[in-house]
Amino acid sequence: MRVIAGEARGTTLRGPTTEGTRPMADRIKGALFSSLGSMGIEPDRVLDLYAGTGSVGIEALSRGATWVEFVERHAPAVTVIRENLRRTHNSALAEVHSESVESFLRRRGRGRAKPFDLVVLDPPYADAEIVGRIGEVATSGVLAPGGVVVVGHASRVELPDRIGPLERFRHRCHGDSCFSLYDRPDEEQSTDGTDDARDADTGTDEPGPGFPDDVVADGDRPVPPAAGREVHRV
Fold first, then answer.
1. What CA–CA distances, in Å, run from 225 to 79, 177, 186, 194?
2. Which of 29, 139, 193, 197 has the fewest CB atoms nearer than 10 Å to its CB?
3. 8 Å CB contact between 16 and 39
4. What is the model's pTM?
5. Which CATH number does the domain housing residue 185 bear?
């Protein structure tokens, strides 16, 4: 497991120490960030829920994010996240919360903390509560206007296209590993006042570093971009 691109490119990350931790594979992680980059999505503030080893949030830091918060309830995994932040010299750009995702979202929902451009949920594949957690992200105030939610899940898990105010606009799979991207489509406007597409419905992404040919598309939808976001058609 390694950092794929950016300032910490090639850095080997410490792996999980418990069987319950399942980090996002490098192949699917590379596809995720290539997919985000093809749409001009370069998040500044990232929330990594069910963080595991912290590899997704650390990848975001390596690629230019200025602040990442990790939420992980298992103490051994928290130790791994902090070690990986030290390895990549990013400890000063992050905060690690040793608590459950449910607890974190409830606490943040009562406060006025600054929201995040990108929220990542990559829970254990057996988590039956994932749809509820996605809904809580939408209502807790952690997602900034124009922000994107990333959900890692198994191919056998059928997520709804609409969860509260969130709508899925991209779905990618490699073997049993998938990710789905959600946003709030009602918030979005093109910068010139006309409708445009965040994602042209071609079924493929623009090739990029770390993007494997065998990650397949399934079910993109054209949506207008968030105000001020550059859009790359693919």
1. 38, 27, 10, 10
2. 193
3. no
4. 0.81
5. 3.40.50.150
